[in-house]
Amino acid sequence: MPLHPQSQAMLDRIHRRGTTPFHELSIEEMRHESQKMHFGFRPEAPAVAEARELALARPDGPTLNARYYRAAGTGNVEPLPLLIWFHGGGWTIGDLASYDVLCRELANKARCAVASVAYRLAPEHKFPTAVEDANFALQWFLENAGDVAVDARRVAVGGDSAGGNLAAVACLLARDRGGAQPCFQLLVYPATDQRGLRSSHTLFSEGYLLTQASIRRFQNCYFHSEAERADWRASPLLAPDLTGLPPALVLTAEYDPLVDDCLAYAERMRAAGVDVTYSCYAGMIHAFFPLGKMFDDANRAVDEAAAALLQAFSRLV
Fold this sequence. Notes:
Blueprint: H1 5-16, H2 27-41, E1 50-56, E2 64-70, E3 80-86, H3 100-110, E4 113-118, H4 129-143, E5 150-160, H5 162-177, E6 184-188, H6 199-203, H7 212-222, E7 248-255, H8 259-271, E8 276-285, H9 296-314
Parallel strand pairs: 3-4, 3-5, 5-6, 6-7, 7-8
Antiparallel strand pairs: 1-2, 2-4
Helix pairs in contact: 3-9, 4-5
């Protein structure tokens, strides 16, 4: 369908400013602009039963921080299912504060706990640091579920864009490791192939919020070399085997340079026997999911994600 009027209105706001292109900003400026977008266009924050900081300590590396939420109306003893969330931002921008409202919404709507993980960002910490942090966070919650009143059998992982990449890779690493596994993947326009070969990268290369120039800037921040982009931990679509993964919901936007890569990953998982639901929001642009004040479809997408989580969690009650 044509670009949604709300997508066009968002793009008009951005382009009307006549400011320096996003990919030409300094890292600090990029992070500030990302925060401004999220704070400006996210819904009001709903109340939850609990929202607190967690320190995920590890013996062989720095402590990882997370923000932990429990759905409104739940106590602090009842074991809840858990969504581990990795925020988007090209592994370079994004933070816990920007995704606070989304995590509250998902906790309440899916009647679960949510742990939003502050993985280390590039360029200060290059590939595969973010992957290692995501993998550690998943292991930590599976092993310490009882300490945070979480049901270890009902732990899902999710994320948007770069965060969706980390969630997908964490599931692959957990499968290869054996033992406890996530029960579900919530992949919101995940970055699945760093090569940029499919037609959506050309069709939507400029003018739809996430540009090819921005993608290249993020990649240059995250990777040491071009060769790393073909590592399956950077491009999970290139993993040799996608069998044995948990069920997945792949949410995408029609006017997104990543959309063809997302579809390819969903189709490859399905061909490998994974239970996959693919949902593309017509007329939407990359990054719409947490911006419910701007996009009506963002609120519908959050509802769809929460319903999928509820269904996945209910299978294991």
